[in-house]
Design brief:
about 725 residues; alpha+beta; 5-stranded antiparallel beta sheet; about 45% helix
């Protein structure tokens, strides 16, 4: 008998072969798996592996029982993509031993495995080691750290891409992105899509998607931007488009827009970003102003013949000037330019912008108190005002307050005037944490008011001269016209120029968010502060927009009247309000069949309908479903349009505030108190009126009385 046979006999006597395999599997430090194939009954192909045995080491490393009740692919479905299953299948079919290495980070595992396998009879024996079962090499650790960083970077890039896409898609302006030299639409936001209705744009070159632009300079401008990388800026450019895809006359709308090249990671131009907004309304308004000026000249000639009428018109103009001056002062008092946040009862700085630093003469530092930075204002009472706001939790608004402030140029305190707001910052328990300050230098505004006063004095002199001499009336009226034009230009310019600091503040806040680290931005105080600042900026922007609308409204006493389909108007406004209607789950019951058309300015009628419906939606009662009933009927003198809701209702003992500018009866939702003022003003200008009935807790009904056109009953 050979030595091998003798050794085998000795091994059998010593280790008892029936128990040897089980003991080896139990004491092995290497994971051992015994599989048998699972075949497809039709094709006969191996489709899965069934566990026969999992040794102790494998149980520990894979967190499996000795005989799992699930198959291999049921436990590890990602093994198909990672090639582990195909390795097992091919090794079984070949009958030859094979090895495999895999970094498996799926299905609850996150380890690097070394695998050896060989067919044994009708089964497959697998041996494997897991790097998690011993100390990982520095190369593997570095690889895993690199993979984690890569995943984090990809996640951050994906997040930023989604944020950018959401900003563009939700922006009120028009955005699109062209790709390639043929300028193929790659991205179009809803306002841009509305330029051509439901006409498909995405995936099409602009020449194919908007053929009506052929012969215009737009294609050439796009080609030049793509070729040179130089941005193109258009100001009030006419863009003829078939907005409703009717094939008829092209729209005559004007736009401000920018063509800006986009580049890939290599710095090569790969497309063009377009930002645009419609300025047709502004241009139309400007033409209307010119037309009104011409009409005013004609009325001046008539006033030279009728002294009493001229005097009354003069008084009307003076009243308008007083209203505009009051409105301008209100807006200037609400818009900040210098921003800082203070914390604690000692009012220590936690944040300030560059405008605030300039205001302080470069003395502001984080951690210092207001008294330390502005020692000259302590005796002037400003620190006492901060103490009062901190203690009471009530904001303080200062308008044109005189202040002796340090002038870095002269090194001495100088007399200035400031508009400012001290806004308390509250915690979740409604306790004051600090104060947010908005400050605007009002010195120039005070000087402007003095100029207005001087102009008023000149106007008074002109009126006196008019009363004393009919002969000099023409000269006085011409001077009054120039004065009115100068004041209108001043008010328009002032309200327009206020937009610049607000946009600067908004840009600075966005830059600040980009510069601050995630840890800083996630603190409760910083998040609350940023929300308050951004919220205030948005409210100021809306207030300036309303100022512009109201200023135009003051002049629109002769808006063009035409028959307007009330049902079409309601459908249009309802489409704009669809998101809010869905949000509050409102039901609209509309029946205006008694008034097919209303003869009125289409733009003003839309403003009235929109304001009444949006108010009904805004002030709904949370405890019940909102029902809005819209009706219209005719009387002898009027067509009456009514909007009735079952919302919160109002206390009409305060009705004197309801139609006043900037007055509101409910403060728990966003609003400026402008809408109903504009509705009332529009109706008064047109010879109509608005009435309201309301019961607190039950709802309200608004009735708008449109006068019949001349000659109708």
């Amino acid at each position: 008998m050979s030595d091998t046979v003798a050794f085998t006999i000795d091994a059998e006597d010593t280790f008892q072969p029936e128990a040897l395999l089980h003991n080896i599997l139990e004491v092995s430090l290497t994971g051992i798996l015994l599989f048998k194939p699972v075949y497809d009954p039709k094709s006969g192909e191996i489709t899965d592996l069934e566990y026969v045995l999992v040794n102790a080491a494998a149980q520990r490393m894979l967190q499996l029982p000795e005989r799992p009740d699930k198959t291999f692919l049921q436990l590890y479905p990602n093994a198909l993509e990672k090639g582990v299953f195909s390795f097992y299948r091919d090794t079984f079919l070949s009958g030859k031993p094979a090895s495999h290495e895999v970094d498996y980070q799926f299905d609850g595992l996150n380890n690097f495995f070394k695998i050896a396998a060989r067919r044994s009879g009708n089964g497959l024996a697998v041996s494997f080691t897991d790097t998690a079962d011993h100390e990982r090499s520095s190369v593997e650790l570095a690889l895993r750290e690199s993979q984690e960083r890569e995943r984090a970077a990809l996640a951050e890039a994906d997040l930023q891409r989604h944020k950018f896409h959401r900003v563009i898609m939700e922006a009120p302006a028009m955005f699109c992105i062209f790709e390639g030299p043929d300028h193929v639409f790659k991205l179009v936001n809803p306002p841009y899509q509305q330029l051509v209705g439901d006409r498909p744009l995405l995936g099409k070159p602009i020449a194919e998607a908007m053929p009506e632009l052929d012969g215009q300079p737009f294609y050439a401008h796009l080609d030049k931007v793509y070729r040179t990388g130089e941005s193109f800026y258009a100001h009030e450019m006419l863009v003829p488009l078939d907005h409703d895809n009717s094939g008829g006359a092209l729209g005559q709308n004007y736009y401000n827009f920018i063509y800006q090249a986009t580049r890939n990671l290599k710095g090569e131009i790969d497309g063009i970003l377009v930002f645009a907004y419609d300025v047709t309304t502004q241009i139309t308004a400007r033409k209307q102003v010119q037309q009104l000026n011409q009409q005013l000249e004609a009325r001046v000639l008539e006033r030279t013949k009728q002294l009493e009428a001229a005097l009354q018109e003069t008084e009307n103009q003076r009243e308008k000037l007083r209203e505009q001056k009051s409105l301008l002062q209100r807006i200037l008092g609400q818009v900040p330019a210098s921003i800082a946040t203070l914390t604690g009862p000692q009012h220590r700085y936690t944040f300030f912008n560059s405008s605030y630093q300039q205001l302080s003469g470069n003395r502001t530092k984080v951690g210092r108190t207001v008294a330390e930075v502005f020692p000259e204002v302590v005796e002037q009472g400003f620190v006492d005002l901060l103490d009062k706001v901190y203690t009471s939790g009530e904001p303080f608004i200062g308008v044109e307050m005189p202040a002796m402030l340090y002038d870095a140029a002269t090194g001495k305190p100088e007399q200035q005037y400031v508009d400012f707001i001290y806004q308390p910052l509250m915690d979740e328990r409604n306790q004051t944490l600090g104060i947010l300050t908005f400050i605007l230098d009002a010195t120039e505004k005070v000087r402007a008011r003095q100029q207005v006063q001087q102009l008023n004095e000149e106007l008074t002199v002109a009126n006196a001269a008019l009363q004393s001499s009919i002969t000099n009336l023409g000269t006085s009226n011409e001077q009054l016209i120039r004065t009115n034009v100068d004041l209108d230009n001043f008010i328009y310019t002032a309200s327009h120029d206020l937009k610049a600091p607000i946009l600067n503040i908004e840009g600075l806040m966005e830059a600040l968010v980009d510069q601050l680290g995630p840890d800083t931005l996630q603190t409760e105080v910083m998040k609350r502060t940023m929300d308050l600042i951004l919220g205030s900026v948005q409210r100021f922007k809306r207030t300036i927009e309303h100022l512009t609308e109201i200023t135009k409204l003051q002049k629109e006493n002769n808006s063009q009247v035409e028959p307007v389909s009330l049902e079409t108007m309601l459908t249009d406004v309802k489409s704009d309000l669809v998101p809010v209607i869905k949000e509050v789950q409102a039901e609209l019951d509309i029946d205006v069949s008694a008034c097919p058309t209303i003869s009125f300015s289409e733009k003003n009628l839309r403003s009235i309908v929109y304001n009444l419906l949006s108010n009904a939606l805004k002030y709904h009662a949370p405890e019940r479903s909102l029902l809005i009933q819209v009706r219209c009927y005719a009387t002898a003198s009027f067509q009456v349009f009514s909007v009735q809701d079952n919302g919160l209702g109002m206390d009409l003992t305060r009705e004197h505030k309801l139609f006043k500018m900037f007055k509101r009866l409910h403060d728990h939702v966003e609003g400026t108190g402008i809408g109903l003022y504009m509705v009332k003003k529009i109706m008064e200008n047109a010879g109509g009126k608005i009435e309201v009935e309301s019961t607190v807790g039950e709802g309200s009904v608004f009735r708008v009385y449109f006068p019949h056109p001349s000659g109708q009953a």
